Amino acid sequence: MIKIYSKMKTFFLMIIVPTLVGCGGGGGGGGSDAPPAPGIRYISSDTVDANDILENIKITNLPSWGSDTQQHQNFNLKRWDYETTLIPVKHKDVPLVIKSMDEIEDRLGFTIFDRDSLSNVADGSVTAGIIISIGTANYANINGGPAIGGERQCGLASAGIPSLENPDNAYFPNFVYDENGVVNAKLYIHLGSTFHPSGIDCYKGSTDLTIHEFGHALGVLRHFTGGFNGNSRYAYTDPDGTNVLYAETPNDNFWNVLRNIYNNNINETAENLTITQYY
Ligand SMILES: [Zn+2]
Hints:
This protein has helices at residues 2-13, 50-60, 95-108, 208-218, 252-262; strands spanning 16-17, 40-43, 79-80, 87-90, 113-114, 129-134, 155-158, 182-183, 186-191, 233-237, 243-246. The chain is an alpha/beta fold and 279 residues long. The protein has one domain. The strands form three sheets. It has a six-stranded mixed sheet with strand order 1-7-9-6-4-5, covered by helices on one side. Strands 2-11-10 form a three-stranded mixed sheet, with no helix packed on it.
């Protein structure tokens, strides 16, 4: 039982991004400072049409975000009700976080973030909103190595700051939305890890990883292939032996999903979603 639970928990709730920053931002001009390793180049996935945007939303957002004993069953659209209350973000003035929020709002075409109200609130006193935490995307296991996804792990969206004492903080929390699909919870976005070869600066190559983690917190919950896979993936090998990888950094497919989530009504059914191909 414990093992099954543990496996399910990992499958449903663990949101990790082991290598995004190392991906080099292929295709979208993401612009990692680190050039791709020799023998590797990156491409972006093809942009999909409205039918497949809906399929991506069915993968990432519409399933219940937990088992039937952990969460309200809700198979409709789930997101923050920014129209009523802007989403509080304790951004701690991290420049790349500010830039990422700017880009998200530019893409959406409207304001969704409240950047001020948590500024002077202690992390422990925050009841709802997104807290940025630098350097905590991984933690030491009992042998002193990285506990979650190996040394390439650089980003994480989760319930809190994970530690040996509080390993459940490495998981996305339960009960983040009510029975009507309104998301309102305390979430952490972790950027950087002391275990990464680039250290806690591993997220700084571009906004890609930060925007990916904001995606999780905003309701692009589960990874989908084509722009939100959580890791680069093999495409093909060039005749000269170069391995070509899909970068899986935020691309048109990601932005189409996020924009459709925030341009449809909360709790809308799959059948009644209005899907627009923005890109
Ligand atoms: Zn992810």
